[in-house]
Amino acid sequence: MTETPRMSSSPWAGATIYLVGTSGFPNYGDELITATWLRYLATVAPEADVWVDCASPGPATVLLGGLHPRVRFVDTLWRLCWEAPSDDPWEVASWVQHAVRFPGHAPRWVQAIELLSSADIVHVIGGGYVNAIWPRHVGLVAGAAAAVRRSGGRAVMTGQGLHPAAPQAASLLRKLSERFDVVDVRDEPSAELLDAAGVENVGKTVDDAFLGLGTHLHSKEEDLPEFMLCIQSDLIEVPKPALASLVLDTLRSWGATPDNIGFVEGIPRVDREVYGLIEHELPDVRFFPFSDIWRDGLPVRAGQKWLSTRFHLHMVAASAGASGVAVSVRPDYYATKHRSLIDLGSSWTMTTDVTDVPEAPTGGGYAPELLAKYRETKLELARRIYTPPVRPEPEPPAEEPPAPVVEGNGSKPRGLRGMASLWGALS
């Protein structure tokens, strides 16, 4: 069945915008970033076809499918990253680019790759998912670069948290970034990484979610607890019992009573495990599951005191005027994230020692003028990215080289021929 052509004077009619992100797990911060861009595009480009390439397109459709009138969800680049022959970032980048330029090497996804390679804008949206913790994810950046090489469209990345970087990845990121019209990061270590690698015109703004902060993200409930917690059990370098002990000791020190305490779940089940260790000690505590906060809004208000390991819970609570203490459970990752918000004026403190009970916070969160400034900074970047598309001539089709020598799953380059394939894909 052929789709009826759209008749419109909008410059975005018939255009394709392709977002790449981590939606659908679900994870409150990842969903928030994608939702922010979809809401923005619903305002400035409602007639564009918007595709979101994410790891879990089914759940993402349910969570986010109503935020733009023409949004759909796929997992093409993610599958290509998973299909790469190893975890080595260079091999992943080489293989994904080769598959995008010559889709016959990934025959299960030919149609999906052709769609990707027809996009006017490929936008790797923000988050901290391209780094040493997930080395295969560099293939997302590589695939975006290869796609616009074919289409003649524009590749952009915004709000990236690239720290900690995989070994020897800096020069790879520099090579890939040459294909991007916009390279924007959210924290100083990420900017320093790209600057040291020689990437030109690196922009350092703020996390993408600042573009969409507002009271529409807050619960409308009036009777919310004064003491709020979000304590994760994933990506931690401290024992869960130590976190449980920190929570109980902190609440006692702050003078909290069980009927005035709330636990928030940023990732389903993962953020319930520490709570599960202490719920019998706090029988009247309220638990706010992810499903409720996504539907009804985050239970935040001015005057609250928060203890949070989650970055975006820190951000949204501070934007509502809540005081708080950020708990870094992994120094090479979460300390960088929380420090970036504190440096922007969240008025929170941070602890890296779970044996040390922090003092009760009194900072009160972000000043309204700072939030307005950060939103305008991100809005200026968004306007620069989403100008009506004018596509240059695409690159002429490349002559397909001989298939790499194969082992195992039929995709791993070896020897001189493999190296030639790698550099050919990166050039």
Biggest sheet overview: 7 strands, parallel
Please count the beta strands (DSSP E, at least 2 residues each).
13
CATH 2nd-level architecture of the largest domain? 3-Layer(aba) Sandwich
Which runs of at least 5 residues are low in confidence (pLDDT < 50)? 404-427
CATH class of the largest domain equals: Alpha Beta
How far apart the termini lie comes to 39 Å
Classify the oligomer. single chain
What does the overall shape look like?
A: globular
Global Rg: 22 Å
Region (Disordered): 387-427
EC number: 2.4.-.-
Pfam families: PS_pyruv_trans
GO molecular function, one term: glycosyltransferase activity
Sum this structure up briefly.
The chain has about 425 residues and is α/β, with parallel strands linked by helices. It has 15 helices and 13 strands. The protein is globular.
Notes on the structure:
This protein is α/β, with parallel strands linked by helices and 427 residues long. It folds into 2 domains: 16-213 and 380-426, 3-Deoxy-D-manno-octulosonic-acid transferase, N-terminal domain (Rossmann fold, 3-Layer(aba) Sandwich), CATH 3.40.50.11720; 215-372, 3-Layer(aba) Sandwich (Rossmann fold), CATH 3.40.50. It contains 15 helices and 13 strands. It has helices at residues 28-44, 57-64, 76-83, 89-101, 110-116, 138-151, 169-177, 188-197, 240-254, 273-278, 290-296, 311-319, 334-343, 368-385, 415-426; strands spanning 16-20, 49-53, 71-74, 121-124, 154-160, 182-185, 202-204, 227-230, 261-264, 286-288, 305-308, 323-327, 349-351. The strands form 2 sheets. It has a 7-stranded parallel beta sheet with strand order 3-2-1-4-5-6-7, with helices on both faces. The chain has a 6-stranded parallel beta sheet with strand order 10-9-8-11-12-13. Helix 8 links the parallel strand 6 (182-185) and strand 7 (202-204). Residues 404-427 have low confidence and may be disordered. GO terms for molecular function: glycosyltransferase activity. Pfam families: PS_pyruv_trans (PF04230). Keywords: Glycosyltransferase, Transferase. Its EC number is 2.4.-.-.
